[in-house]
Structure formats: C-alpha cells, structure tokens
Design goal:
Elements (H helix, E strand, L loop, with lengths): L1 H29 L2 E5 L5 H15 L4 E5 L26 E9 L2 E2 L1 H8 L2 H5 L7 E8 L5 H14 L3 E2 L24 E3 L10 H19 L20 H8 L17 E4 L2 E7 L1 E2 L2 E2 L4 E2 L2 E2 L1 H22 L7 E12 L7 H16 L6 E7 L8 E9 L1
Parallel strand pairs: 1-2, 1-3, 3-5, 5-6, 5-7, 12-13, 14-15
Antiparallel strand pairs: 3-4, 8-9, 9-16, 10-11, 14-16
The structure holds flavin mononucleotide.
The site of flavin mononucleotide (FMN) has 20 residues, from helix 2, strand 3 and strand 5.
C-alpha cells in the first residue's frame, strides 16, 4: 500500500518535470533571436545575414536590427529596423555585430550598450545566450575587440557562446580569414574588396548554427554542412505557394528527449511530428469522441506544417531544395469502428501536392491507434528526397 503510494508520488513528480521541460522548450522556440548590429559600410550587416541564416537553419527565427544613429553608405541598411534597449529582454538570445574601432567596439554600439544600465541593475539579461561577431579592415585587434565586447556582456551576466577553432571543409587557407576562436570577423576595408570572403560567411553561418544549438541546448551532433550561396536554391517557390494558400511555416518543434527532429540518410530525410501548435496540441483527444472530423483535418494540416518546418531546416533553409515527397504515413487517434482515415489524411496529401506540384505526389499509409503521444489526434511520419 505504502510502496504503491510512493511509486505514484515519484511517477507524478517525473511527469510534472517532463511537462515542465516541454513548457520550457516551447517557450524558447516561440521567442525570436535578435541579431543586433552597428554597420556603416554594410560589412557587419553581411556577416549578420549569414549568422541569421545559420540560426534559422537550426529551426529558430532570427531578426536583424540595428542600433540608432547610424549613418550608412549602403541602401541595404535602410530596411533594417532600429532596436531599442527596452526590447533586449524579450529575446531567447542576442548575437551582437559591430565594426572594430581602434581595437574596440564601435562608437554607436558603445553608446547603445551604455543605455542598458537599467537592465543591468535588474540583471534581466542574466544567463541569456549571446555571441559576438565583428568587422575590421586590417584585422588589427580583431580578437581583442571581441573580448572587449565580452566585458559588457559578462557584466550583464550573459552566457557567452564562442565560435571555437572550427574546422570547416574547403576553407581557402592561402588568404587570411577572419575566423577567431571567440567569434567571426572579416577583413573588410573598402566596398568591392570581396570581403567578407565566402569562407568568412561560412564561419558566420556556423557561428549562427552553434549559437542556435546553445539556445536550444542541442549538441552539434550532425555533420557540419555549410551551404555555399551559389549551390543553394535561390528561389523559394514552394514557400510562396504556401503563403498564397494563406499558410505559413511554424517554428520547427525542438525535441524534448534524446532524439533529433530529423535524420538524413544519403539524400533521404526522415521526420515524425504530432499536432503541436504554439507549444500545445491542437484539438487533443479521440476523433469522433470529443474531436470532430473537421477538427482532426485541421490538426492533420497543422501536423504536416510542423513536418514541413523541420524539412526546411533539413533542406538548408529552402524547401525548393526538396526533390520529391516519397511517403507519408498518418496515424489517427480513433475508436475501433472508425474508417475514414483516408479522408482525414487528404488534408496532408493535398497540401504537399498543392505546394510541391508533381514532386509532391507520394505513396501513403494511414492507420488507427487507440492512443497517441501527448493525446494528439494525429501523428505523421514522412520521408522526403533532397536534391
Ligand atoms: C574610427 C575607426 C577605427 C577603426 N579601427 C580599426 C581597427 O582597429 N582594426 C581594424 O581592423 N579595422 C578598423 N577600422 C575599420 C572598420 O572596422 C572596417 O572598415 C569595418 O569593416 C567597417 O564595418 P561596416 O562596413 O559594417 O561599417 C576602423 C574604422 C574606423 C572608422
């Protein structure tokens, strides 16, 4: 009697911890990552775009903003929104990018950070992950400039993420590159001097990936594949079609156990998802016993969107890199006499054919189950082929 009470107590405690960890993971996944820059010539901005692409390749959403009072010589920076110090506390992580000024951070960045005194007093950025990248010219002081930026971030109690001595395939070692173990830099003096180099952009991309993994507490356990701009699909027809249907991709759900959101074997990608939306299951329960067929169709579409969000990560940030949809398997939380599995699964099948066209035609299996994880009404397993 007493043993069963203790077992129930321990089991309940473990369940509570598990659900707390899910809430925590969902919370992180729903917050943007800020890439905050100062840039007058646009070089820091170019690095920022690669940092952002690397972060988004790992399934998080990143936004680039600039500090106020910038006079810039490139129109690209006009469209970048200005950040305020108040908003810093709302992000899951902040990557800082600054030009190097006399072996230190730039005047604008320094002025902005000086305005964070109120946040520092309350230590509101304590433990928030941060990383630094910088743009220089001669390269003089590129390492110490990053560590001088660290002094401010350490005062805020932030958790600093480094670049490390990363070995990235195919880097041209015949020319000086701006990689440092502390963070990426570039040696960029004048417009048109071909900097940041292709390899410096690769380091920035990798730094973005490493930073995202630090935010989501995921080890960088997959082979490092850095896409080179020219090798990637440059259009995004598939996502445009999705937008025309009034749909958008959610942030790719992160695993809450010792598994990965996708596995790539050769050019095949394997993905499993349930009907998570904003950290909760959409229409949890049994179909036709609390959940209507219409609700189950919506949950199926949501599950397919989750699959596509993970697929985008696997496809180097662009669904146009998908060669074909190979197979979809849908499992539904049903009563034993339910027979309309195919009717529900059409919500997923129609969606992929609508956005991928002929490449979306696939083989399919549908199943009924007496229960599904998290009480989801549906689970989809999918196999895709990449280019
Ligand atoms: C006042 C001043 C000081 C600078 N000091 C350094 C320096 O110590 N080391 C360096 O490599 N570049 C230095 N530079 C060059 C810039 O950091 C470099 O051109 C950078 O790429 C500009 O970044 P942006 O294009 O994002 O504005 C300095 C530039 C200025 C205006």
């Amino acid at each position: 009697m007493r043993i069963s009470f203790y077992l129930k107590f321990i089991f309940g405690f473990i369940l509570a911890l598990a659900s707390l960890s899910k809430v925590f993971a969902a919370d992180i996944n729903n917050k943007d990552v800020l890439v905050l820059i100062d840039s007058s010539g646009g070089n820091t901005y170019k690095l920022a775009e690669s940092i952002k692409a690397g972060i988004e390749n790992k399934g998080l959403h990143a936004v680039i903003k600039k500090v106020p009072n910038q006079e810039h010589t490139t129109n690209d920076l006009d469209k970048v929104p200005v950040a305020s110090t108040d908003e810093l506390v709302k992000y899951s992580g902040i990557a800082f990018g600054s030009p190097i000024y006399f072996g230190n951070i730039s005047t604008n960045m320094s002025a902005f950070m000086t305005q964070t005194l109120a946040i520092w007093k309350k230590q509101e950025l304590a433990n928030v992950p941060t990383t630094v990248f910088m743009s220089g010219c001669s390269g003089s002081g590129n390492e110490t400039s990053i560590t001088s930026f660290w002094n401010i971030l350490a005062s805020h109690g932030m958790t600093i993420v480094t670049l490390g001595n990363s070995s990235i395939d195919g880097v041209n070692k015949a020319i000086p590159q701006g990689n440092t173990p502390y963070g990426t830099t570039t040696r960029s003096c004048l417009p048109g001097d071909n900097r940041p180099s292709k390899d410096e952009l690769k380091y920035a991309y990798f730094q973005g990936q490493k930073f995202a993994n630090a935010i989501t507490h995921t080890s960088l356990d997959q082979k490092i594949i850095i896409p080179v701009a020219s090798e990637k699909a440059t259009t995004n027809t598939v996502e445009t079609k999705l937008q025309k249907l009034g749909l958008s991709l959610p942030i790719a759900p992160q695993p809450v156990g010792k598994y990965v959101p996708f596995k790539r074997v050769g050019n095949l990608v394997y993905i499993n998802q349930v009907a998570l939306k904003d950290g909760k299951i959409l229409y949890p329960g049994i179909i036709e016993s609390g959940v209507t067929q219409e609700q189950a169709k919506q949950a199926t579409q949501q599950t397919m969107l989750n699959v596509l969000a993970v697929l985008k990560v696997a496809a180097d940030g662009n669904l146009d890199n998908v060669k074909q949809v190979v197979q979809l398997s849908g499992t539904f939380n049903t009563l034993p006499n339910f027979t309309n599995h195919a009717g529900l699964m059409n919500s997923a099948s129609n969606l992929v054919v609508d956005i991928f066209g002929d490449k979306g035609v696939h083989t399919r299996g549908t199943f009924g189950a007496s229960s599904l994880p998290l009480n989801s009404p549906v689970e989809i397993q999918a196999i895709f082929e990449l280019n």
